[in-house]
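Please, structure for the following, as tokens.
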Amino acid sequence: MSGHSHAANIAVKKAKMDAAKGKIFTKVGREIAVAAKSNPDPATNSKLADAIAKAKAVNMPNENIKRCIAKASGELSGDNYEELTYEGYGPAGSAVIIKTLTDNKNRTVDYVRTAMRKHGGSLGNAGCVSFTFTTMGIIIIERTPDMEEDVIMEYALDAGADDFIAEDDAFEVHTSVADFSAVRKYLEEKGLNFFEAQIEMVPQNKVTLSGDDLAKFQRLVDALEDLDDVQNVYHNVDIPDEE
């Protein structure tokens, strides 16, 4: 199995995650709370189990995870969050999709619109760029010397994955949205630890920016990701690892 790797260099991603650990925990905690609202049992709530797997991948402490579930299930007071998606264009016509969880959609759209406008972008109508993305499950397993590529690939195939990509520092598993939970659970049961495990929107084709356009675009993504209400930012720009 082969394909285009979605993962940037693991070391680069780790450094970025370490620098923003508190904010990442807050964002993942919201996902857990939303998923647990209807059913706080991950054994019978696959969406919650997926959110917990994502939390574990970023090394979120178990106590934090339990607290988020308790808030959602009414044991502790918690906020009600709504999932909203915005689409638009960045510098040089690049495509941007912003996934949010918010308890105040007027505040969120204002912050997102301001960040886009300030950094050379603009919001568009629903569907204006999402048709150029494919939604899929992405599971990234950090590669260690004791891992055998053939064994991990066999696990992925047996689990029902759509694609398996071996990189120098990671194994990447792609799934359909429908199969993501089952594949994740199967690989977990095989004792594999995930660096990343979530549903993502992957561009069907990437564009290359350079110079001022690239610098502007990166400032735009940083500004959007820094917003408390923004969970994920997806785009179609091919950003070099060293950036």
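Residues 21-36 form the longest helix (16 residues). The two ends are 29 Å apart (CA to CA).
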